[in-house]
Amino acid sequence: MDALQALRQACIQGRVPTLTPEDTTVVLGDRGSPWPLDTKTSWRSASHELYTLHSLILLLQYADKPIGDYLRTAIAWKVKFVSNIDRRELLAYLKRERDTTDAMHIDKSDIS
Fold first, then answer.
1. Which of 33, 56, 85, 101 satisfies CB 3.0 to 4.6 Å to 46 for a cystine?
2. How many Å apart are CA 102 and CA 51, to the nearest integer?
3. Which of 37, 26, 74, 32 is nearest to 83 (CA)?
């Protein structure tokens, strides 16, 4: 299971992790061993970059809060924020409101 699938499964199970600025790893679901937060996921941004696990978890953590709070936190924590273009589709995918998307990066050879 890749990082995006593990995060989606955690979301579906209602087990979205809460991060602090000091965190460098996260345990998702029943995996047991931690994922480095800088792990690239298979979600490609509108600018064709792969989002990291850190970016996606921070988005989930701030999904129901004002966008300004999310952006300020992402900047303060030096985490790339998810663009408004990607935000809605990504949240729908992670919350299982949709199962497919063109933003998924199929060739996983460059995912660390």
1. 85
2. 14
3. 74
**Coil/strand/helix, residue 14:** coil
Q: Can you tell me the mean pLDDT for 18-23? A: 94
- In the chain, % of residues over pLDDT 70: 84
Domain that holds residue 60: 3-110
Instruction: Output the pTM of the full model.
Output: 0.85
Contact status, residue 26 vs residue 19, Cβ threshold 8 Å: yes
First to last CA, the chain: 13
C-alpha to C-alpha distance for 36 and 46, rounded to whole angstroms = 23
Tally of domains within the chain: 1
CA gap 50, 39 in Å, rounded: 10
Q: Is the pLDDT of residue 77 over 90?
A: yes
Residue range 46-75, pLDDT digits in tens: 888 999 999 999 999 999 999 999 999 999
Whether residue 58 contacts residue 19, with contact meaning beta carbons closer than 8 Å, is answered with yes
